[in-house]
């Protein structure tokens, strides 16, 4: 029998080597077709008397990335369609769909012939669960091999036997830790956790896997043997009596109860370990069916899995512009940002010229890359040769002539219109016709800067976030005259450096900073009302924000806030900044010299390490303090999330952001907006625009007009619309096509 996605070669020893190699994909993923074929392979190999056992491997560099985007999307649309017709039937269908993989993997496990997974590369999610259902697992020791059950990161959990098998192989604490964080394991760590049997050299992988079968590997899982005992003795032991209360408390601390999937993992393991294996699988299947229906799962899968991939693959790239292979990128300004932009560009294998006012400054910029490379090599994350190759790609220079063959120049000089004007002119004097100029400005509108350009159609904003090496998001900003070619090149560049782009129309603060400043401003309001600072910071964390607003302001720098506020007043008038906010920040900066982390004092104190930062006690003296028991933490949480979401809605209304996927993904990657919501607009859609409008009105009555719902929101509430319905990103693509 032949298969589309698999080949089978049976050797003289009767071992069938099943190689998974999807013809039209760079990575193997599970589709309905792949599962159907695996089922046929199980039937075929069981029926074939010549086959003694099966080695299952991948023909790609990686083993598999897990489930396919289209399959997940299909599951949600099936649920929606069926629910409209028959709500109970829809859930039953979902239950069956959720169990498809579970019971297919179980079929492998109980087929009567030994199966060995030969894991040659990254093995994620359902693929790792498939391996766990094999009787033997051999992994290559190549650095690229990572094993993980990362489902929790997108709001679901390992629902194809993962919670049951991992908890029956590894000790419970490790099992819970791995699954509730979704963290990756190296092959060696997986072996230490008892999740793989052998770790071998890459070229020994298949022979070692075959050898396991030749050595008489039993086609029976440990839990199907009589007398099987869970590692550590199961739930009813003194050790478990210690572990479980702590596990629940840690989960609560880490997730604030915002992630139903993480809690479901604990439940699956706790309940599953007390019953026979098949019953455990059924428990898992039930919780999975329940979790998939939560708005958290829906929002997270949509934004963090589907939309992120779509944006990364160029969902907003203009059609009909040929892809640009970047041969050379110029970075002008080798300071804090420019130095790191040069690093990420070289890390993508693109030659970079790093220019500053003199060669010393340019070389100092390159030394940042030298430090980053030394760190990565020291930690074993990069080989010495790769590090040398990367550094060789960065040429420091003070001579603009070296930009004469660059496809793209990214400008990251001082935030000063005159300095930028001079640089634009100097670069354009040498830059080839058709090459693109991108500014990394964070506050100056692109349309205004482009007035200094002789070719505004080739002028664009590419806004990075700090630290550039770590932040996944890049805002691409369109000036009024920016053309398609500039957008296409900018997106090709962002894709090459493996960041996720959002495309934003020109406005003060673009998208991310507009939202971030709302968050910080709300904290200023709260401080002025006398809300204890610690309650503000904790409420933010309970709401799911990774960093409290005061802590974030310290990171950004309090004096930068002051600069931005003053610039707003200068450009837009007094009314653009609340006097109470200006007063607070002027006092912090001018009077108290509390500029943030950078000078060791801001809203927090920063004692010498290893001591941890703590809130500055002097904050209490700035405003008369409210009694904590009179402050509603829930209201603080609502205020912090609503003020950001409202700003996101305003950007849609103004046409600054045009695609809800970008507002959502941008908010999570840009400033960690409560990921369980799926992002700013999914937060609104998730509770319903009508409910959101009511919440805004309630907050406006007590906390100010900035909470008033906008005309668009009122209209959407009246019509019963959602952001994803009204601004349907797929409808837009169809319309454009
Ligand atoms: P920086 O002061 O650290 O670096 C600016 C660099 O530009 C300096 O090395 C300076 O010598 C160089 N420079 C100045 N004039 C020059 C000229 N005429 N020719 C060549 N080089 C020149 O500043 P930064 O924080 O890296 O910010 C740079 C840009 O990036 C600004 O537009 C800023 O708004 C933007 N930005 C900053 C951040 C951030 O977190 N710092 C984030 C996003 C964007």
From TrEMBL:
Q: Alphabetically list the UniProt keywords.
A: Fatty acid metabolism, Lipid degradation, Lipid metabolism, Lyase, Multifunctional enzyme, NAD, Oxidoreductase
Q: Which domain of life is it from?
A: Bacteria
List this protein's GO terms for biological process: fatty acid beta-oxidation
Q: Where is the 3-hydroxyacyl-CoA dehydrogenase NAD binding domain?
A: 328-507
Pfam families, alphabetized: 3HCDH, 3HCDH_N, ECH_1
CDD domains per UniProt: crotonase-like
Q: Where are the transmembrane segments?
A: none
Q: Which residues form the 3-hydroxyacyl-CoA dehydrogenase C-terminal domain?
A: 509-606
The entry assigns this protein to a family as follows: In the central section; belongs to the 3-hydroxyacyl-CoA dehydrogenase family.
**Protein name, as recorded:** FAD-dependent oxidoreductase
